[in-house]
Amino acid sequence: MSLVIDAQGLRKEFTVRVKVGRLRRAKRTVTAVDGVDLRVERGETLGYIGPNGAGKSTTLKMLTGVLTPSAGQVRVCGLRPVAQRTRLALGIGVVFGQRSQLWWDLPLRDSFDLLRHVYRVPAGDHATRLRRCRALLDLDEFLDTPVRQLSLGQRMRGELTAALLHGPRVLFLDEPTIGLDVVSKRAVRDFLGELRRAGDTTLVLTTHDLADIERLCRRLVVIDHGRVVHDGSIAALHSRYGSRRLVVAELDTALATPPTLPGAPLERVEADGRRLVYACESAGAAEVVAGLAGLATLRDISIVEPDIEEVVTRLYRSPASRAAPVTG
Ligand SMILES: Nc1ncnc2c1ncn2[C@@H]1O[C@H](COP(=O)(O)OP(=O)(O)OP(=O)(O)O)[C@@H](O)[C@H]1O
């Protein structure tokens, strides 16, 4: 494995002028990113999330060479993002919701062609990549439409293509599904899922849509007040915050006393005793199901996964998230 992103102690301060009293203005320092360490291997898909103002976009801007860090070390594809920005541009793709890399008045097809010249992509590579994007993102019906006439969902599919035509090693995406309808959201997620499966592009994704994260990311980095408060899998986040899988058993007939199962406390009894809900603590779902099957006649069983929205809400509210960063 090779490291494609290596940031240590990354920090960004902004000086802002604030009004003090009626006439005076004073300088204040806002620490947007406060010592972020981030190492990302080739082929990883990383979800970078946090509440509004946490420092996500600022981090991405430092990783892509748009902003100079106030302190810290950073290498992306082995390059210093600001100092070697032109070389870096060949190795990364960027999709930032607010900024377009397409030519507003030109048909999408012409923007793609111009990008081929900008990045000096060999014609054969360009054609192969474009063919793949056309097929996976259903671009054909609007390839000849000027960009300004595209819907948001169509434009986002165009932006994704534009970001990938030069074959970048890392793709940075800032809120790629924001404002999209369910069909376009799915198209974008499926496409990114395909890209992840192919395994040669590293994806770094910021989003407020946790379904994006659940569908796409094995690793989740949570940032709050400029600091990393979680770096690990979604499962690690659930176990840290005590979220548990639930086993919901529908019984043929209610039992006089619901069974006690080791490692799986009974959470709720519903439907006049015909539905029992157990939480998997030390017991796995299979053990719970096997235990129940020996004691009652089961009509149906379902397993409810812990809800990521709930655990992330708890994390954002947690005072502990302001203290020490946690990894795992
Ligand atoms: N150019 C700037 N000048 C001054 N302050 C800034 C600037 N850019 C960002 N900030 C401040 O830095 C902090 C982090 O902002 P940033 O945009 O990185 O957050 P974010 O996590 O991307 O938020 P959101 O989810 O709302 O997009 C905020 O307090 C923001 O007001």
From TrEMBL:
Key words, A-Z: Antibiotic resistance, ATP-binding, Nucleotide-binding, Transport
ABC transporter domain mapped to chain residues: 18-250
Lipid bilayer topology: Peripheral membrane protein
Gene3D superfamilies (UniProt xref): P-loop containing nucleotide triphosphate hydrolases
Gene Ontology molecular function: any one: ATP binding
Primary subcellular site in the record, as a coarse category: membrane
PANTHER family noted in UniProt: ABC TRANSPORTER ATP-BINDING PROTEIN (PTHR42711), ABC-TRANSPORT PROTEIN, ATP-BINDING COMPONENT (PTHR42711:SF1)
Protein name (database record): ABC-2 type transport system ATP-binding protein
Presence of the UniProt keyword Nucleotide-binding in the record: yes
GO cellular component: plasma membrane
InterPro entries reported for this sequence: AAA+_ATPase, ABC_transporter-like_ATP-bd, ABC_transporter_ATP-binding, P-loop_NTPase
Pfam families for this protein: ABC_tran
GO biological process assignments: response to antibiotic
Origin species: Micromonospora palomenae
Subcellular location: Cell membrane
Entry superkingdom: Bacteria
